[in-house]
Amino acid sequence: MKRIEHIIGGQYTSADSTRTAAVYNPATGEQTGEVVLACEADVNTVVATAKAAFESWSQVPPAKRARVMFAYKALLELRADDIASAISAEHGKTHPDALGEVARALEVVEFACGIPHLLKGDFSRNVGPAIDTASDRHALGVVAGITPFNFPAMVPLWMIPMAIACGNAFILKPSERDPSAANLVVELLKEAGLPDGVCNVLHGDKVAVDGLLHHPDVQAISFVGSTPIAEYVYKTGTANGKRVQALGGAKNHMIIMPDADIDQAVDALMGAGYGSAGERCMAISVAVPVGEETANRLVSALAPKVAALKIGPATDTDADMGPVITAAHKQKVLGYIDAGVKEGAELVVDGRGFSLQGYENGYFVGGTLFDRVTPDMTIYREEIFGPVLSVVRADSYDTAVDLINRHEYGNGTAIFTRDGDAARNFIDRIQVGMVGVNVPIPVPVGYHSFGGWKRSIFGAHGIYGPEAVHFYTRLKTVTTRWPTGIRAGAQFNFPSN
Ligand code: NAD
User: Fold this and answer.
1) What 3-state class would DSSP assign to 102?
2) Annotated catalytic, 281?
């Protein structure tokens, strides 16, 4: 059985880890590997390794750090298929979907290739008599990233390229549920010429996370995962004096206006609701048609498509979606469907009985559609993270906007309409960080930044793009006087021009 180890100082090692966690193929339910789980001593080892590597890496000229990124980009492109296979084997998403994940990760590497330009400072001559001021941004030191299971390569690569291009040393703590893809992408950094110790992988669970949150030599933490853990990481990290960005869960709504192209909206909802079995933080999990007629048309067009979803293992090239991540998560999703029925939602398509011949032990859940969901129901309030779409009927556009603005999450949202006035009003009023107009999954490209609002994020900075430069560096402003011969005598008042 495959053993998945840490990467510390460029070497695979179990270090002092004695505990392990099982890793499964979600399509078959078979255990395919075991991942080592770090102990506190391992946290100390990896932080010391990263700290030592930071000393020289932070002094490497940005243009040379960029060259590593260029080489890395080429290697990721070359090995995209292997990375996608590693993702699918432990996550279960289809191979084309996994390739899409790698493609989006590549955008962040491409942006990091421009790091000399991004780190360029500001200079002002003659701010006073013979006085000049220069500001530029400096690396923080050792920074850590803690990532979720649902994008086992992309989310680590939302962090790593910008963190290291800015001159930091990085420690990645990937999800213990699908850890192999993270090792592969970090392994390729070594091949791209990154010095050992600049990017490390520490596998583990709460012990590893807590160790990083409390270690005095870790300067900053990037976290992506569920809201309760994001909040915990933010509060604990900041209480320990660290800079923290913690991105959490979501409940993304899509408004369908009466004038929308229903076929286009239905196609969008199928991909955004059921792609990757609904296990995306930008998945649409709530459709909000405006008006009874729009709702009736939408539900009658959606229902047969949801019932006809092709569900299969990642190796099935025809599959629209795969299984969910674990047996426990499957039970959780089924529990939400039960709760929806009990609380009075109308179950239009029931995915609970789904079984796939030859894969009876896989963690498959059939596509599920609820209509007449109301805001007080558990399936509306909580993030299900499965192939379950809820329709909440709104009697007006204003009701739909209020509904979204009242939800505790504010990650992504969309409106489908042909009305420019409505679209512009929506962009203005909606309390959500990432907004789509006739675009169901508005994940920003690598040169913009990603981040939600409300309880979908803790901390001031979005992830990747220009926000990452600010998060992974700190400002230094230098004021100089040349020549030194000018004498104004001792000045006891606050300096001013
Ligand atoms: P999770 O919160 O369970 O795990 C995320 C990370 O935290 C993992 O590395 C895990 O090992 C660690 N962790 C788990 N429990 C912990 C604890 N008690 N103490 C310390 N660390 C702990 O999330 P997940 O189930 O892996 O991922 C799915 C969640 O991530 C969903 O809520 C999804 O919306 C969210 N997500 C958000 C974004 C975003 O950008 N906002 C992106 C992807 C996923």
Assistant:
1) helix
2) yes
